[in-house]
Amino acid sequence: MDVSARVTSKGQVTVPKSVRAALGIHEGDEIVFRVDGNRAVLARTPDLLDLAGSIHVPAGKRNASWDEVLRGSRNDRAAQRP
Description:
Elements: H1 17-23, E1 31-36, E2 39-44, H2 66-80
Antiparallel strand pairs: 1-2
C-alpha cells in the first residue's frame, strides 16, 4: 500500500487513516521510525505489558534483581567457554 501525506511547516505529518487502520494504530499509541538509507519505515511499537506472563519463569528465578540476572548470565557464558 502506498499512501502519501504532506509535511507541515512544523515538521508534522498526519498518518493517513488507511495506514493507521492497517497497523492498528490508535490515539495514544507510540510509533517508531526506522531510517534506512533515504527511506523511513513506520511501525507501531508493541505494548510490552501485553507480553507479561507469556514466558514461564522457574520459581527459583522469580523476583531476581537485574544485577543477579546479568551476573548469572555472564557466569553461565563463562562456564560454557572452552
